[in-house]
Design goal:
Largest sheet: 11 strands, mixed
Number of helices: 6
Distance between the termini: 21 Å
Number of domains: 1
């Protein structure tokens, strides 16, 4: 259960967020299935726990824009059958795992250990130690745990210098401000098919905080949650589809509750024309107790200095098991792993 939670966290930005963009939008707004660079900020408000999860990330198939540190040989023979490498680092601890396909358990553990000792430990110096191996069909996942970053902001800043193009800009400018949050974590992900070295790289940050409770109208201030005064797309996110040029830079907002929630207003205003700037509110949301909205820049790179959405509903925290949100559960998973590690 613990590792599944961590997997969910790691892919929140780069899997669910990408899918979320598509499910939030109508047919005329659908994002292309192939892209070189995309950036996403995702905010999820849970009205039944008065919690909000904030995530921001970038993903690219162009390794000149996003990549792992040069000190890590991503074409090492040990990684040929690896389909995913995920690193999550927070202040309490870190977790690193490798997903292998078409590889025996003994081989997967051997290759993962060699990779960690030769490359990851040399670069990160987080004291990674083998934690567990899980098997599902032909998939073998080998997990390691390590120390946390004493200063997550400094750690992330150095990682950005080694993993992102210096002029990337865009949503990556939210990374450092977000890492100053107490519950923040930084994640680095590489994915590919088994048998080749055509990697897709992702980097992002996320944190969890409290959302003001009460009944009536509530405003989600996106820039305040991202800890920035303005937000603009990266120049690398601009693509052309047919006669349209637009930025693959999207802010998605999910509001979920156990009672009815409704859209009230938004800044900037709404848009109904595909690939244009503004908020798109999904008219065919999953149910009356869920509201979905996406802000798109269209082809306009002008920074937004106000970005908010107001909804109506009731936000009442219920102090039950669901109160343990994604980031806090990650910290718990790491804490348990550390306890097992040092008691062994």
């Amino acid at each position: 259960m613990g590792r599944k939670v961590a997997v969910f966290l790691a892919m929140l930005i780069f899997g669910m967020a990408v899918a979320g963009c598509r499910t939030h939008l109508a047919a005329g707004y659908q994002l292309p299935s192939e892209f070189e660079f995309m950036e996403i900020a995702e905010i999820s408000v849970n009205c039944t726990t008065a919690q909000v999860t904030v995530a921001s990330g970038v993903i690219s198939t162009n390794e000149t824009l996003v990549h792992f540190p040069a000190e890590i040989n991503m074409e090492a023979v040990e990684l040929e059958n690896v389909t995913q490498i995920t690193l999550l680092v927070s202040t309490p601890g870190s977790i690193l795992w490798f997903v292998f396909n078409n590889t025996e358990v003994a081989g997967a553990e051997k290759y993962a250990n060699v990779t960690v000792e030769t490359y990851f430990e040399q670069y990160f110096n987080l004291g990674f130690k083998y934690n567990s191996t899980e098997i599902s069909d032909n998939i073998v996942t080998v997990t390691f745990t390590g120390l946390g970053a004493t200063n997550l902001t400094d750690f992330t800043e150095l990682l950005m210098l080694d993993c992102l193009a210096s002029d990337l800009g865009g949503f990556s400018l939210t990374f450092i401000p977000i890492t100053r949050e107490t519950s923040a974590c930084t994640q680095l992900i590489a994915q590919k098919e088994s048998g080749n070295f055509e990697w897709r790289y992702s980097m992002g940050v996320m944190y969890n905080t409290i959302f003001p409770d009460g009944s009536g109208e509530h405003t989600v201030d996106v820039l305040d949650l991202l800890n920035v005064e303005s937000l603009a797309p990266s120049k690398y996110a601009l693509i052309t589809v047919g006669f349209n040029q637009f930025y693959l830079s999207t802010v998605t907002l999910d509001i979920i509750s156990n009672t009815t929630v409704g859209f009230v207003s938004c800044v900037p205003g709404q848009t109904t024309i595909p690939y244009t700037r503004g908020w798109y509110i999904n008219p065919s949301g999953p149910s009356p107790i869920q509201l979905q909205g996406s802000f798109l820049f269209g082809g306009d790179s002008t920074p937004v200095t106000v970005l908010s959405l107001t909804f109506s509903g009731t936000v009442i925290p219920e102090f039950t098991a669901p109160m343990c949100t994604a980031v806090l559960m990650l910290i718990s998973v790491i804490a348990v792993a550390f306890k097992r590690r040092f008691n062994s």
